[in-house]
Amino acid sequence: MSAPLPFPLAEPPDAPEREAGRRLFAGEVTFVKGVVAMSGLPGADRPEVCFAGRSNVGKSTLINALTGRKALARASNTPGRTQEINYFALADSHYLVDLPGYGFANAPVAVVAKWQALLKQYLQGRQTLRRAFVLIDARHGAKAVDEEIMALLDSAAVTFQCVLTKADKIKASERDRVLDQVRATLARHPAAYPEIVLTSSEKGDGIETLRAIVAGID
């Protein structure tokens, strides 16, 4: 009998889990505020999850797919469009947080440095942050800049779960190679949650699974 794979793909949710996820994201979803300093964070009165990823990995598009709103989070082909920590409220249950893209961004160096510093302060200092979802483009695998954010999450003792985006853009044979590379990367990080979520915002793959995971976090 072969040993189970490290960091397996998350199983689809069962019926109760799927319904909990559907109900959470089918309810009221509102943009709360964009935050440019730690002093501007909303009250720490509920669990929150955040979405992190290098610029243009598809964070905003994934958030729109999860919530079923086409323009809740601003999606752009211009890397670095998100320059604030953007808070969304899932009814009065959870905060969903869209973080600034890290790595290359089409913005002045001083602006990039400022929001990268804010990102680090947030990850290290937000007590109600229950899980970070680190988005990796399935076409490219984990990059050095992704490992930087993973190391930061390790040091902050924030559990993070890898979400592969744009899974529809890669052949099945190539996908296995990328998964092996990502698994080897995650194995180096103690804060990594031991399941990977494979998603396609365009096709809807993995969306129900990710909704159920968020609904189960308290």
From TrEMBL:
Annotated EngB-type G domain residues: 45-218
Alphabetical UniProt keywords: Cell cycle, Cell division, GTP-binding, Magnesium, Metal-binding, Nucleotide-binding, Septation
GO CC terms, sorted: cytosol
Necessary cofactors: Mg(2+)
Gene3D superfamilies: P-loop containing nucleotide triphosphate hydrolases
Keyword Kinase: no
InterPro entries: G_ENGB_dom, GTP-bd, GTP-bd_ribosome_bio_YsxC, P-loop_NTPase
GO biological process terms on file: division septum assembly
CDD domains recorded: YihA_EngB
Domain of life: Bacteria
Listed GO MF terms: GTP binding; metal ion binding
Keyword Cell cycle among record annotations: yes
Biological role stated in the UniProt entry: Necessary for normal cell division and for the maintenance of normal septation.
Family to which this protein belongs: Belongs to the TRAFAC class TrmE-Era-EngA-EngB-Septin-like GTPase superfamily. EngB GTPase family.
HAMAP family: GTPase_EngB
NCBIfam families named among the record's database cross-references: GTPase_YsxC
Protein name: Probable GTP-binding protein EngB
